[in-house]
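For concreteness, we quote verbatim a single protein encoded this way:
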Amino acid sequence: MSIRESWALIRGHGFLSSVGVLVGGTGFAAVISAVMLPVLTRLYTPHDFSLLAVLTAMISIVSVVACLRFDIAIPIPEQDNEAANILALAVVSVFAVVIVLSGVLLAVPAIMLERFSQPSLGSYLWIVPVGVAAVAITSALQYWLVRKKDFHAIARNRIAQASAAAATQLSLGGLNGMALGLVLGPTVGSSAACAGLAYRITRTEKSLFKRVSWRQMRSAFSVYHRFPKYSALEALSNSAGIQLPIIMIAALAHGPEAGFLSLAMFVIQAPMGLLGTAIGQVFLSRAPQEHRLGRLDVFITGILGGLLKVGVGPLIFGGLLAPNLFTKVFGEDWHRAGILMAWMTPWFVMQFLASPVSTALHVLNRQRAALLLQLFGLVTRVAAVYGASLFAVGAISEAYAISGFVFYSVYFLVILNAVGVSASGVFGELRRAAPWLIGWISAGLLFWVVAPMVLIEGWMR
């Protein structure tokens, strides 16, 4: 099948319209967060953002495996009865993990928390298990809606989540000089999203709970045991590879370095959340069928072509602009964050290409390969950060950015090889996307020439 035919196939199955729905909802949510961010960077200090980075990292590391990865298996079965029992397995797993996590956090000695630049970290640890439960259950419920292709509900839910988080952060901003509003906002948003999805599903799927039984849950576990066995550790390695270095940077670097890093990552992840996550969820809803029909490789090639055209260019453009714009948009204290965003751009370009189609390894039942890849990523990034802390602590975040680029480059190549995507197909899509990429890069370089001239003219006046 040719690339042109595969593109027609993607359009014919409603893939683009489904992505459009998710992009619209995620985009509106991103606009809410983007509008609020310059306000929040003036209400809260870089040290507050450093505290947020540490708590978010803890929640992210655990929440991604709290379902034991049964959540991503929900769209795969052909029968709803089997999928309903996988959903039940995911929710039960979350409660078990949260109970264990709460016990671990209660046992954390205060001396360990003294390593961080935020002495108040211990006062906010209670947010972690609440956030883990909200994020993980929301993920499981979203994958049920992915299975049902109810992307409108997911889109509306993301808007509600962003609104609840922003309202909390703004209303509690600067409260007695505390960071409570900033760190509590994401958990409030996730909790609101979880409640909204639960209400939606129980209202539309009135017989859902009648399909669930312990016997059928055990049967589903025996069929999908590879997900907790391989995919859970894979996801933990992936999340820890991203988030554990942030915790290490907060403990090892001088000043609020983790706060600068978290702001830079938030800004550069916005376009990825806008498009990449949406494509990834819709991809998973279609990939099992495309694999059964023997055309997963051309399906992925067509998706990569779209990613190259509409996403990579804006990421590069944003990376080129960041060092000059961050102080103007977020305040004079945030120049370091703009520098870090520029360093992280190559990493996020490769992540943007790899992440939306990464679940192809699960569709192919290659969980072991996915696990080994993520373990490689964890070791690479942790080693880079620790090495920089010993020999170049001032460049610790830059070392983290380079290690992220190395990992996702390897990850991308392994996915293409596993699926059987040809090099000629990838280069063909790259050639077709070249005008878009050249245009965005040229605009970014032009900004570097024009911006200093405007600043000099303004100074002379």
Remarks:
- The chain has 17 helices and no strands.
- The longest helix spans residues 423-460.
- The chain has one domain: 3-460.
